[in-house]
Amino acid sequence: MAKRREEPDAPNRLNRIAKKTDICFNIIFAVLALMCIIPVIFIFIISISSEESIRHIGYRFIPESFSADSYIFLFREADMILRALGVSFVVTIVGTALGVMLTTMMGYVMSRSNYRLNGLCTMIVFIPMIFNGGMLSSYVVNTQLLHLKDSIWALILPLLVSSFNVVICKTFFKTNIPDSVMESAQIDGATQFTIFGKIVLPLAKPLLATIALFLTFGYWNDWFQSSLYITNTKLYSLQALLDHVQRSIEMMANNPTMGVTMTEYMNSMPKEGARMAMAILIIVPIACTYPFFQRYFISGLTVGSVKG
Q1: Residue 125's CATH number
Q2: What is the pTM of this model?
Q3: pLDDT (tens digit, 9 = 90+) per residue, 11-41?
Q4: In this structure, is the dihedral angle defined by the CA atoms of residues 192, 121, 157 and 165, taken in order, positive or negative?
C-alpha cells in the first residue's frame, strides 16, 4: 500500500511563496534598489564632469569630458569644508545620543500602566502629532526665551524629541518587555533607573537602533535650522554650507555686475560640479553608517507587530 503524502500544516502552507511570486518580488526589489543607487551614481558622474561638458550637453551619464576640478576646488576650500563637516558630526552625534536617551526614557515611563500621570503625558505627547504652534512661535521661543540664536544648540534642541519616536518606544516597551520581569526586579529592590538601564535597554537593541537611525538621518540632512537660527558662518553645517553655496551661485547669476574679484572667483569655480561633489561628500558618511544599524533596524520595523 502506497504511503499517503503528508500534507503540510495550514500555517506553513499559507506562508509559502510561489516561485513566480518570488521572482516578481525579486524584480521589484531590484528595481527599487536601482532607483536608489542610480541617482547617487549620476550625481557622482556630474561631479567629475567638466563645466564645458555640462554647459554644452547638460547632465549626461557619459559626458564629453571628465574633470577633477570640483574636488580640487573642495580641496582648496578644505578649511571651510572640514569646519562644516565637524559641525555636522558634532550635531549628529550629540543630538542622536541625547535624543535616544530622552525618547526611550519618555517611552518607558509612558509604557508603565501604574504610572499615575500616564494619561496626561500621553495626551501631551500625542497633541504635537496632530498640530503644533507654528514656525513663528517656535522661532520666538528659541530666540527670545531660550536665546539659542547663533548657538550650536539651535541645531540640536529643536529636533531632539519627536512624538512619533516616543510612541514607537512606548509601543515596544509595552508589547515586548513582560511586566513579570519588572515586578521581579522590584521585589529584589531594584530602582526604576536600575530596571531601565540594566534590564530594559539590553532587551531593546532593535528599538535603540531604529530611533538612532531616524535621529541620525534627521540631524545629518537638516539645513533648515541653520537657515533660521545661524548667521555665523563658522557654525554652518555641511548641508547649510551647500545651501549657502547654491544661493550664492544663484545670486551671482542674477547680479553679474557685482565686484570684479567676487565675479572672477565665482567664474573660476566649477559651479555645477562643486555642488554635486559636496552632495557626494554629504551622502558618503551617512551611507557608511547605515550597515551598522541594519542588523537591528529590520527588527525595529516590526515594533508592535502581532507575534505568532
Answers
A1: 1.10.3720.10
A2: 0.74
A3: 555 556 778 888 898 899 899 988 888 888 8
A4: positive
